[in-house]
From TrEMBL:
InterPro entries: Arc_rbn_hlx_hlx (IPR013321), Ribbon_hlx_hlx (IPR010985). It comes from Streptomyces purpureus. Residues 51-74 are annotated as: Disordered. This is Toxin-antitoxin system HicB family antitoxin. Signal peptide: none annotated.
Length: 74
């Protein structure tokens, strides 16, 4: 038995090309992939509707690690 995190579900999503283009531009503006933007929006909608499960895992962080703050000057 391994100690791996559960795999993420894969879904096929068909979108109007104009909707996809708008979504991709929005995602780019927020430095996300289109896929990450879709998950962000779905989670926000679920939370607003009171339907996001309490035990839903957070969206995995991608990209560069956050910069460390320099030590305070004395």
């Amino acid at each position: 038995m391994t100690n791996e995190a559960p795999r993420r579900k894969q879904v096929l999503l068909r979108l109007d090309p104009k909707v996809h283009d708008a979504l991709a531009r929005w995602a780019s503006d927020e430095l996300r992939s289109a896929n990450a933007q879709i998950e962000f929006l779905l989670r926000r909608a679920l939370a607003e509707a009171g339907r996001l499960p309490d035990d839903a895992r957070p969206i995995p962080r991608r990209g560069r690690p956050a910069k460390e703050s320099p030590p305070p000057a004395e």
